[in-house]
């Protein structure tokens, strides 16, 4: 085992931090993969339900059928927007996790090889 001095302590510290970051990146990657396979189920927020009830007051000139059609269109727009946001969040999370893994592994290997005296 190499002797313990400030230089090796620094390298051990960097290796420890890299291992912790590696664990966080793997957990984040696993969480994102689970989110891809089993997406969150959509639950209608109370705010939107109340808003739909106000449409009758806000648009008194519209018939019931026109109101239903307008609500249906707005719900579809909201669903499309939420799906886009979900995909964007997944892509960002995957990118962060993969980049962190790609950064941490070489840094760890470099510092560990310095400790072992191979570099």
Automatic annotation (TrEMBL):
Keyword Membrane in annotation: yes
Keywords, comma-separated and alphabetical: Membrane, Transmembrane, Transmembrane helix
Keyword Membrane: yes
Residue intervals passing through the bilayer: 9-29, 90-110
Highest taxon listed in the record's lineage: Bacteria
The protein's name: Uncharacterized protein
Species the sequence originates in: Orenia metallireducens
Upper lineage: Bacteria, Bacillati, Bacillota, Clostridia, Halanaerobiales
